[in-house]
Structures are given as C-alpha cells and as structure tokens.
Amino acid sequence: LHLFDTFEGIPVSGDYDMEHVVGDFANTSLNDVVKSIPDAVFHVGVFPATMPSAIGPVAFVHVDCDQYEPATAAIDMLFPLMVMGGVMLFDDYAATSGVTKAVDDRFTAMEIRRTGRGKAYVTKESPDAR
Q: What are the pLDDT digits (tens) for 95-111?
C-alpha cells in the first residue's frame, strides 16, 4: 500500500479549482496516519514529485486530491501502470470542479462509471487504454 500526501494541506489551486484553497486540510497528521496504517509506504510531499521510479503494477488507485493538477498527474502517472481490470476511483468527482474536469478531460463518458455516492471510477479494460 503506497500513500501519497503532502500532510500540509492542498498545495496548489488553479483555474478549475473553485471549492478549496491552498492549505485546506492541513490538519492531517502523518504520525496519526502511520499509527493507523503502519505497514503502508508513505510518500510525503507533492505528487508527482514523490512518485518513485519503480512502482507497479497497480491494481487499485484511490484519487482524493480535490484539485485539477494533482488529479491529472495521478491519471497520467498511475493509470498506465494499472493491471487489466484495475480500478481508479475518484473521491471528489462531481464534488469539486477540478477533479471532475480532470477525469472528463482524460476519459470518455463511456469509460467513467458513477457510484451511488457521487464518486466516479474507471476500469482498465485494454492494454492500450489511455
């Protein structure tokens, strides 16, 4: 389990990001999360700068970054590493304009599936997807 987070709140805000500002969610404690999930590998800092060169294959990605730029980076960096049948879940689809735009920009409407709670996910269905 690889976890990526700044642990300093939202690091960027761009033209498509309306709901949160830089610094929101800065109250997350790395120590508390490490205590809760001690076997996880933590990559502290701004993604994708914290992406290790050797990671993968990936079966599941939970994208919870609230902003357009980090969501786009997660799709571009991690989706190609996914195994066939792998799932990428977007926590803030339909909740934040930046994530909604990032997903809509990178996937077709037919690829995007919605959950009953407003989230969205895509499944890697072919080796050359994306």
A: 889 899 999 999 988 89
Token reading at 54: 């050797």
DSSP letter at 109? T
In three-state secondary structure terms, 88 is strand
Tell me if 66 sits within 8 A of 19, measured CB to CB: yes
pTM of the model: 0.87
Q: Reply yes or no: is the peptide bond before residue 57 cis, omega within 30 of 0.
A: yes
Which tokens hold the place of 63? 């994208």
Kindly state the tokens that stand for 81. Answer: 């590493």
Strands 82-90 and 120-123, bridge-based pairing: antiparallel
Q: Could you tell me which of 39, 60, 50, 58 has the C-alpha nearest to residue 5?
A: 50
Burial per residue of 50-59, b for 16 or more beta-carbon CB atoms within 10 angstroms, e otherwise:
ebeeeeeebe
